[in-house]
Amino acid sequence: MRLYNYMEDVVIKAVDLAIEKCPQVCKCEKCRLDIAAIALNNLPSRYVVTEKGEVFAKADGMQLQFDVDVLREVTKAIEIVSKRPKHDDVW
Ligand SMILES: [Zn+2]
Q1: Residue 79: is its pLDDT beyond 80?
Q2: Furthest-apart CA pair in the chain: how many Å?
Q3: For the chain, N or C: smaller number of CB within 10 Å?
Q4: Does the residue 19 lie in any domain?
Q5: Sorted alphabetically, which InterPro entries does this protein's record hold (predicted)?
């Protein structure tokens, strides 16, 4: 059993769909995850207790009610990252 924030999956799926429609946006791993991180920081967490395997069914079933908020935050995050990509930052 573990805690799982299924909003992560919802947002990552939404980022992948959204950037496919935005040819100007960098699609490297760093930029995709930056976009997801910014969007997730502006969205509520949705923690569930889960056992391995059941989580994806739950995430799919609950995805629709967040679509409008998720898309709005993902779109804003894409604008932020595409203006100032951080993929050259070295940590
Ligand atoms: Zn990039």
Answers
A1: yes
A2: 41
A3: C
A4: yes
A5: ComFB (IPR019657)
Instruction: Of 7, 8, 16, give the one whose Cα is nearest residue 66.
Output: 7
pLDDT of residue 55 exceeding 70: no
Whether 34 is in a domain gets the answer yes
- Residue 18 Cα to ligand 1 middle (Å): 15
**Residue 44: domain span:** 2-83
Ligand 1 center–CA 40 separation, angstroms: 18
- How far, in Å, is the centroid of ligand 1 from the Cα of 67? 25
Task: State in Å: Cα 54 to ligand 1 middle.
Answer: 32
- Asked if residue 44 is part of any domain, the answer here is yes
In a domain, 88, yes or no: no
What pLDDT does residue 65 have? 55
